[in-house]
Automatic annotation (TrEMBL):
Cofactor entry: glutathione
GO biological process, one term: prostaglandin biosynthetic process
Alphabetical keyword list: Cytoplasm, Fatty acid biosynthesis, Fatty acid metabolism, Isomerase, Lipid biosynthesis, Lipid metabolism, Membrane, Oxidoreductase, Prostaglandin biosynthesis, Prostaglandin metabolism, Transferase, Transmembrane, Transmembrane helix
Phylogenetic lineage: Eukaryota, Metazoa, Chordata, Craniata, Vertebrata
Gene transcribed to yield this protein: Ptges
Main location class: cytoplasm
Protein name: Prostaglandin E synthase
The protein's Enzyme Commission number: 2.5.1.18, 5.3.99.3
A GO molecular-function annotation: oxidoreductase activity
Protein family per UniProt: Belongs to the MAPEG family.
Amino acid sequence: MGEVITDELRRGTWEHGPSLFGLLIWTEDHLLSRSPPGLQHKPQGWNFFSSSWSTQSMLCSLWDSLTLSHRVRSWISGHLAKTPSMGLVMENGQVLPAFLLCSTLLVIKMYVVGVITGYTRLRKKAFANPEDALRHGGLQYYRSDPNVERCLRAHRNDMETIYPFLFLGFVYSFLGPEPLIAWIHFLVVLTSRVVHTVAYLGKMNPRVRSGAYVLAQFACVSMALQILWEVAHHL
């Protein structure tokens, strides 16, 4: 049995694909053929893959293991192909990339709000820590400022909505939703949060800010309900 497997390995023509050991043995023969005439011999122990009985036994076990591994991989691939959610995501590749795009833009927007907060602190000389105030002029600047507080409130409001969206949107992407419906959910959250931040920091009409907040919440609640509905079908 070991000799048969060794021949199969040397040919590298398994039914499941090229053999790694066949490649190694081919490399061995290739290197020996290119060696100088006086060095074209195999040192003791060089023919590791075909000489000893223990190696042949090892190859028999390896043959069985790889055959079983191939069967397991085939079963898993077939099982995943039958799963509607994974099949849809892998087939059209639209839902998950849409979520990744919108969520990344939202995270960048949060970073921008953080930078604006820091800039406002420096401009207004209103620091939250006494050591920062001492560094920039004295303890009299260890104080609060309405503009800084507004930036902080906008940032907190972002966290209340964007963090849940990152979880809900990711799970929702694997439920197999219609790509157009998924895009609408993600774009509503993205657009609403950008409008909310602009309206908050720009001191615009409160109705604009409130409307943007409610729209983003509606989209998140919609995704949450669809997730619960899908989970309930598998309980």
